[in-house]
Amino acid sequence: MKRVLFAVAAMIAASAGCALAQVFPSRPVTFVVPNPPGGPTDSLARILTEPMRGFLGQPVIVENITGASGVISIRHVVRAAPDGYTLSFGNVASHVFASLISHRDYDVANDLAPIGLLTISPMWIVATNSVPAKDIRELIRWLKANPDKATAGNVGAGSPAHLCGLYFQSHTGTSFAFASYRGAGPIMQDLIAGQINLACLEASASRPYVESGKLKAYAVMAKTRWPGAPNVPTIDEAGVPGLYLPFWHGLWAPKATPPDVIGKLNDATRATLADPAVRSRLIGLGQEIPPPEQQTPEALAAFHRADLAKWEPIIRAANIAPE
Prior knowledge:
Shape: globular
Largest sheet: 9 strands, mixed
Number of helices: 12
Distance between the termini: 71 Å
């Protein structure tokens, strides 16, 4: 009889232990951000954390782990326990460009479990007001008439601005020099001062300078016009069809994170993106929110792999090495 009672007690204890183990989350969840505090990606992460806390029932905190254009941040998450408490919050720069260029010990497509696509903002081509071209066609003619005399700003080799410039050159047969900066802010300062001629920048971050007339925007590198600047034509309308470069953000967990945990995190992100106050803030910053069918883990996986496949040959052809 005692053995039976002990066996029953053990079964009850094991069952209770399993039930407790399945409760997620039972402590704070961390977004590991590859950019320093105060930047666009960090700001976006912090906009999402407070409403997600309400949906998860636990605090969601931001941890900034910078270096190697995001590689160190991603490696930290890849090596974390696959329990849903340490998540990789990143973008096309960290999870596509840097992960294709840098020497790394992880496979970004296979060592992370996608949770959801968060926001999209287009890149666009902007120039200082001293550039005489009024539209993209005139810009191409001006660049061809002055080969290697114009300078485009970027945030280092392999950055979105750099790859955007290479992409533009390959599609238009133009040639211009590149100048590297530590961030988009210094690029815009030198553009306004006329120290450089043009740049391909994230539209949401540089929109105030275009709206104030300090810079001019030629086209958004997207299939449709950007609601943040509806008067700026698409790259197709401008005359260089197919030259697309969305600047997107996503959320991932370590590989082998249980599907039910991924599901709960995805539910929380989708609920957050559907919140009217959150949507208003994001749209006010020029961010586009993907439709619900694009917010699933499967959709992010497909979106991510497609971008990796698109940019890998371009990066290889350019022989870009990590800085």
